[in-house]
Every structure is written in C-alpha cells, then in structure tokens.
Amino acid sequence: MQGLIGPPDYSQEPSRHPSLRINAKEPFNAEPTRENLISSYITPVEFFFKRNHGPIPLVDDISSYNVSIGGLMEKSVQLSLDDIKKLPKHNVTATLQCAGNRRTAMSNKKEVRGVGWDVAALSNAIWGGAKLCDALKLVGIEYNTKMTLSGGKHVEFISVDQCKEEDGGPYKASIPLHQASNPLSDVLLAYEMNGEVLNRDHGYPLRVVVPGVIGARSVKWLDRINIIEEECQGFFMAKDYKMFPPTVNWDNIIWSTRKPQMDFPVQCAICSLEDVNTVKPGQVTIAGYALSGGGRGIERVDISVDGGKTWIEASTYQKDNVQCIPYDISSDKWAWVFFKAVVGITEDTEIIAKAVDSSANVQPEHVETIWNLRGILNTSWHRVRLQIAS
C-alpha cells in the first residue's frame, strides 16, 4: 500500500491515557477501569479499549493512501480517502467488543490462552464514514448480493499491520457478501470516531466497523478489500476466535470443525463494583452495561442480591439517561445499554446480574458450561461479592 508503513518495532507507539489497565505491552492491549467504562454512554476515545496484534502502523503520506477493491468480480478499483469521503456519509453508534472480554474470570476456573481481560474489553462510539455497500456498488455489487458472477461469496479485509500470529504478515478477516452489501447491516468504512478523525490506535486513516459482530472482524488500518469464494483463511478466521466445547483441548483440537465466530451472544457486567467489595450496611448502587449481537436489543437486566434466590429488574437506558423501551425505533440497535438498580444490603452476599435480549436469549448461569480453551465469549452471569464492614 502506498502512503502507509508498518513500523518494525514498538519505538513509535502513540501515547495512551495513564488510567488504562494494561494487559499486554507489546503488542499493546489495555482496557479502561470499570468506573471509566460506564462514565459515558459514548466512550471517550482515550478510554476506548485497545486491542492490537503488532506495532501501530504509521502514516507516511496520506495524499497517496488508497484502498483497493478486487477479487472475484467483473472489475476492480483503487479508492483514495477523498474518493471514499465523496460517498454518502453515515454515522453509526456501535459497541465493539473483544471476543475475549471477561476472559480472566474464565481462566480462573481453568487455564486458557489469550490476553487476560477483565469486564471492560468493549466500548461504544459514534463511527463516521461510508457504508461498505456503497463502495461495493462502484464495482458492480448491488444490495444483498449473495454471490458474484465469478463465484465470490465473502468480503475479505486486509490490514497493513504486522501480526506475530501471521508470521509478520497483515491482519485479515472476512464477512459474508450478503451482509457486506446490505445497507441495513451498517458495515462502515470509517474515517471518524466520535466526530473526530480516527487516531492511530483505532485505525487511522481508515478501518472497517462491522456492528453486532465480535471486534476481530472490524479490521483497522485498511489496505485491501477482496471478494473471495470461501471465508478468509487468515489465522484469526481459520485458527482463532472459534467456539469449542469444554471437552476440546490443545491435543485434540481440529480447527476446521468449527465456523469462525461472528455475532456475539447476550452479555452484561456490573461496573459499579469490583469482584470483591467491602461496604457499609445500607443502599448500594448496582450499575453496568448490557448488549447483544446481531442488532438484538436488550429486553431486560435482572439483578439478584441474594446469590440468585430472588430477582429484581434493573432500569435500562442509553443516551440522555432515558429509560429504554424495547424495540423503540429511536434506540441505537448496535449499541450497549446501561443498567442501574439501588438495593439495600445488610449482610455479606453475592450480587448477580444477567441480561435477556430481544430474542429471549439468556446468559448461561455458570462459566464452567461454556469454558473453552481460547477463553472467548464468557457471557456467564456476572457475580460480585459484598462483605459488610465490621
């Protein structure tokens, strides 16, 4: 790619907010504190979680930057950033979530491989850019196309970064062509984040945002878009981010027996408390986030203050702190909701939160039932313990 260079080392990394919890330094992976995560419905860029697989690429000459669209179709194009900005601009509010969110709690049950994330490996932003479907029209691919005349069924995104998992090659991922060409999917070629130009950590000058899907498919630092016959065979599609049952281990794993993970399941977590807390008897605020993939909304969030014996329903809200109404057309369908409940505590107890989405999917009760060797998609009931101060 002209215009971009991938640094061979970590000597020119961007600066980051000092409050971030650093889970890995090289490559840099970090999440905000629980308190900072829910301080704002739209996550400030400095608190947005950072997920990387190599050094952060540097822009050499933005005037010569371009993205190619090619592969199994009748024609190909080279698009400059200005070309992309000439397409209709859309703003999409979407929460990106790492598939490894809450991995630490899973690894506490049994060892897994991967970056040790707490509950904050996700964030919410207003993404600005062109819809991918509009860019695909430039090469003759129309709305809800499932296959090109040349046999293309998937859209592959290739980055410019250098990943240790790809032996120094670029990060790759793909989504089905019918999803990429559907305007209702809101897949973006994003060049703005929260009304400002993307910064380096989050994909400058151009990234893909695939709402409702695990963050691994929202490729940053975009270089090429290819129309391909089968799913991308890069490491992160073929040999990572797949959901295996608890019986599979590193001795008997066969990667080809599972499809790459796309939509994320229903999820919630308490962020107003740590996993173990000492509090005074009285009123305690239980607050956090809930979300589900695929554009499914949150129907409700249930809170238990007695270890799951009884339940109450928390209030839920999105922007402007207005209580959510399920299926309300004014809601941000790709974004999280916040929940809140104020409860009275008089003795040591376990607080539990679980969410139900608009398709009546419910979080699993125990992490053991969804344990997997890569530690992805820990969506089990979130539990925190309260101890009364003596």
UniProtKB/TrEMBL annotation:
Pathway: Sulfur metabolism; Energy metabolism; sulfur metabolism. Residues 259-387 form the Moybdenum cofactor oxidoreductase dimerisation domain. The keyword Ribonucleoprotein does not apply. InterPro entries: Ig_E-set, MoCF_OxRdtse_dimer, Mopterin_OxRdtase_euk, OxRdtase_Mopterin-bd_dom, OxRdtase_Mopterin-bd_sf. One of its GO terms (cellular component) is mitochondrion. One of its GO terms (molecular function) is molybdopterin cofactor binding. Its cofactor is Mo-molybdopterin. It is an enzyme of class 1 (oxidoreductase). Gene3D superfamilies: 2.60.40.650, Oxidoreductase, molybdopterin-binding domain. Transmembrane segments: none annotated. Residues 53-235 form the Oxidoreductase molybdopterin-binding domain. Its EC number is 1.8.3.1. GO terms for biological process: sulfur compound metabolic process. Keywords: Metal-binding, Molybdenum, Oxidoreductase. Residues 1-27 are annotated as: Disordered. PANTHER family: OS12G0442800 PROTEIN (PTHR19372:SF14), SULFITE REDUCTASE (PTHR19372). This is Sulfite oxidase. It comes from Rhynchospora breviuscula. The lineage of its organism: Eukaryota, Viridiplantae, Streptophyta, Embryophyta, Tracheophyta.
